[in-house]
Amino acid sequence: MLWLRSKKNRRQALTLIRLSKSTDKTVVPVIFQSDVAKLFFAYLVTYTGSAMAPIAVAFGVLELTGSAKDAAIVIAAPTLAAIAVILFGGVIADRTSRKYVLVIAEVLSMLSQLAIGLLFIFGEPTVPVLTGLMLINGIAMAFNAPAATGLVVQIVEKHELQDANVMLGTARNGAIAGGAALGGLLVATFGAGLTLIIDAMTFGISAFLIGTLNVKVHAAIEPASMFEDLRLGWGEFTSHTWLWTIVMQFSLIVAAIESTFGLLGPAIAKDMLGGAISWGNIAASFGVGTLLGGLIAFKIRPKHPMFVGSLLVFVFATVPLSLSVPLAVPIIAVMAFAAGVAGQIFSVLWYTTLQQQVPAHLLSRVSAYDHLGSIVLAPLGIVIAGMLYEWVGYELTMYMVAATIILPTAAVLCVKDVRSMSNVALD
Fold first, then answer.
1. How high does pLDDT run on average in the chain?
2. 11: in domain
3. SS3 for the chain, per residue?
């Protein structure tokens, strides 16, 4: 211990300790960190079920009423509910425990999906009743999304964010791939009701896993009122030009994608492509594409992430264009696969940039504005798509959907801040 009496030696010892600690952070890969692994498996389970649910609901309502408009109303209901309360979901997530907000949201989704599944099996559900239960599911979504985005920064270090987002995105999208194919098979074999009951079980498992997370306490600034919280979140959101312009772009794009995968695709598959199994395979191809996109996202660190990400969005237009003919199922599946690759790379770049650029204590609030802007037009888009499908036919409808993806993406690439915004991890 005499060695430590020297100031120089003490400084050397402290330096070695600091280096040891910093090294420890990087020795264990992100996926092998306990909390990341738990969240990974929670995503894997819940998104497997959630990938089955849209197929089950769409085909369940189509079989029940035979109306694309009725299916559109039921499918749009969760998004309408989310729009109504998502900003408050972001505030509550920033003010309280994001972990327990997620647990409650998963339990609420479990109960609503269980009720719908039981009604399909044992009852005679009406469109208003199904819509009401889907509204409950939408409220859960409104609290889930902002809390999940903010939770990631509480379980990994800042330099690990992109790797963590890749892993969680891989879990989510791998689950979507398997869940979509499984959903199509289950709906075709056992019906919509059993499929939705299985979905409900996955929410319960996810709630348990999330409840066991050991997360870092995030520093929260507590203004006088919830509306002041909203104002602060809005100020941060509007201060980033790249952020609000891309959110505006995705208001239209999400409406187009939701219309395609949630309503128009299943309707075209039912009439011309062989039914639920065919559409399940197409949706699964999208999910498989996201797995490859995740692997690519591990390796790339573009200097201008939002410029690169926005270019990739054009690939989404290939899916509605292939459905406008429609082409053979394998070709549509290839287009969906390519869209999955592009979509996952964009998603990783987007969430990593958001988590790097926005202060942690404001992240759920800003994320709430992000999610709100992204979904605000989705219900209207789905309803309009359902009406257009019946009024002008699938071909013209799918051309309109493709244009809704291409034109806003071209517009956002004209924004200088989108093209020039730099990756802070490279600075």
1. 81
2. no
3. CHHHHCHHHHHHHHHHHHHHHHHHHHHCCHHHCHHHHHHHHHHHHHHHHHHHHHHHHHHHHHHHHCCHHHHHHHHHHHHHHHHHHHHHHHHHHHHCCHHHHHHHHHHHHHHHHHHHHHHHHHCCCCHHHHHHHHHHHHHHHHHHHHHHHHHHCCCCCHHHHHHHHHHHHHHHHHHHHHHHHHHHHHHHHHCHHHHHHHHHHHHHHHHHHHHCCCCCCCCCCCCCCHHHHHHHHHHHHHCCHHHHHHHHHHHHHHHHHHHHHHHHHHHHHHHHHCCHHHHHHHHHHHHHHHHHHHHHHHHCCCCCHHHHHHHHHHHHHHHHHHHCCCCCHHHHHHHHHHHHHHHHHHHHHHHHHHHHHCCHHHHHHHHHHHHHHHHCCHHHHHHHHHHHHHHCCHHHHHHHHHHHHHHHHHHHCCCHHHHHCCCHHHC
